[in-house]
Design goal:
Elements: E1 4-6, E2 9-11, H1 13-49, H2 56-153
């Protein structure tokens, strides 16, 4: 096996195989640390040079939107109040209309009852009147027949 001697230290092949990866790891670690440090320095420069943007225009816009929202909420409140008022009036009108319909129904029922009673009464009166007229007609026919008989039986009726 190959051996390396440095300042009196002999390193054999198997130890050399352990030392080489160790040296590579140390060099890689140093290089990674350097990269992290470089990025940190770059980031610090960017952070230090950062200037916050002027957001006053956005603040003005937000205030304007808030004013509009407040105004819209007020208008919606007024509209809802009006809708509630209209709903109350509609309910009141509906109840009044129901009462009027009930009154009209009772009046119609009363009128129907009266009409039925009057028609019954009129039917009775008409029947009685027809009987009376028939009786008067019969009497009149008898009187006319009598008069005709008397006229025909009169001896003077044949002379002119």
């Amino acid at each position: 096996m190959a051996e390396i001697e440095y300042k009196g230290i002999k390193v054999g092949g198997s130890k050399l195989l352990l030392i080489l990866p160790l040296i590579g790891t140390l060099i890689g670690g140093l290089w990674g640390g350097f990269e992290v440090y470089q990025r940190y320095i770059t980031m610090e420069k960017k952070i230090n040079s950062f200037v916050s943007p002027d957001l006053s225009d956005y603040d003005k816009r937000i205030d304007l939107v808030q004013q509009e929202v407040t105004m819209l909420q007020g208008e919606l409140t007024m509209i809802l109040d009006e809708v509630n008022l209209v709903a109350d009036v509609a309910k009141e009108l509906k109840n009044d209309l129901k009462g009027d319909v009930r009154r009209i129904e009772s009046i119609v029922e009363d009128v129907e009852t009266r009409v039925k009673e009057d028609s019954r009464t009129n039917e009775k009166e008409i029947k009685e009147l027809v009987k009376e007229i028939e009786g008067d007609m019969a009497n009149l026919e008898e009187k006319i027949a009598d008069t005709i008989q008397k006229t025909l039986a009169n001896p003077l009726a044949g002379m002119k």
